[in-house]
Design brief:
EamA_dom; membrane; mainly alpha; 0% strand; transmembrane; transmembrane helix
Length: 288
């Protein structure tokens, strides 16, 4: 159990650097190129683990499995993750991180309508508190220069929440390593097709200056981050491991301030506190 909490801390720190790293390469690479590069590396890291699980569990994939992976992979990588990288381009890394971190709460309405799961009163309150935090960040009393970035981050959080809910139907069948590898691989194939259709060379924008960041995003954030998260789930529980997502909105802004020199306005700080509060309420409700 103690080892599981170490994985949670490591995962929370790694995921909190995602927007920071994305901001560093935003000016030299397109969002599609960034997303393709990091998930390619992540998929290659998961390949041997997935292959081992396929052999150990004696799982044979059929046509319906591959169609499922392509559907989920398309929702996660070409849509949600590209939207997320786009949000980093159009707003502060800290703001994108905070807004994206409420994605676990958006699973509530999706789980109700798609899976028929019961909605508890405490979960609804937690969702409303977090949405109040998003409203504070939007700052409706003033026109924000980064409104587009906030909307993109919100769209990314919504689509990732939908991806999370849809993954529940077969995740237990495959296991985390198999599911993530094939989802990543399928999403990469779709994203490659998009790049090819646009006539964009896949790695044309990678330079000596941004290569270390791309490698970090692939190996550490996408590869090790997901591996640590899956190990945390295995050694603790899905609910306990999800605490990563209420540590991130508190930690990511601090990292952005330290490394990017970003300033947190009063309305964003208040929104961050409300989102953390809503996430904690959600965590306690699910834990009960």
């Amino acid at each position: 159990m103690k080892k599981g909490y170490i994985y949670i801390v490591l995962c929370a720190f790694i995921f909190s650097t995602m927007e920071l790293a994305g901001k560093l390469v935003a000016g030299s690479m397109s969002p599609i190129q960034v997303t393709f590069s990091r998930f390619l590396i992540g998929a290659l890291m998961l390949l041997p683990l997935a292959a081992t699980d396929l052999k150990r569990k004696n799982i044979k994939l059929d046509r319906s499995d591959y169609l499922y992976f392509f559907a989920l992979g398309s929702l996660c990588i070409p849509i949600s993750m590209v939207l997320h990288q786009l949000s980093v381009v159009h707003t502060q890394a800290s703001t994108a991180a905070i807004v994206f971190s409420i994605n676990p709460l958006f699973t509530l309405p999706f789980a109700f309508f798609i899976l028929g799961e019961k909605i508890e009163k405490n979960m609804v309150i937690a969702l409303l508190v977090s949405l109040a935090g998003v409203v504070c960040i939007f700052n409706p009393l003033a026109v924000s220069y980064d409104l587009k970035g906030i909307l993109l981050a919100l769209a990314s959080a919504l689509t990732f929440a939908l991806y999370t809910v849809l993954s529940k139907s077969r995740l237990s069948k495959y296991g985390g390593f198999i599911f993530n590898f094939f989802t990543f691989a399928a999403g990469e194939i779709v994203l490659f097709a998009v790049l090819a259709a646009k006539g964009t060379p896949v790695f044309s924008s990678i330079t000596a200056a941004n290569l270390p960041v791309v490698i970090y995003m692939g190996i550490v954030i996408t590869g090790l981050g997901y591996i640590f998260f899956l190990e945390a789930i295995k050694l603790t529980s899905p609910v306990t491991a999800s605490s990563v997502f209420f540590i991130k909105p508190a930690l990511a802004p601090l990292l952005s301030m330290a490394f990017l020199g970003e300033r947190i306005s009063l309305n964003v700080a208040l929104g961050m506190l409300l989102i953390v509060a809503g996430s904690v309420m959600s965590y306690r409700s699910r834990n009960r």
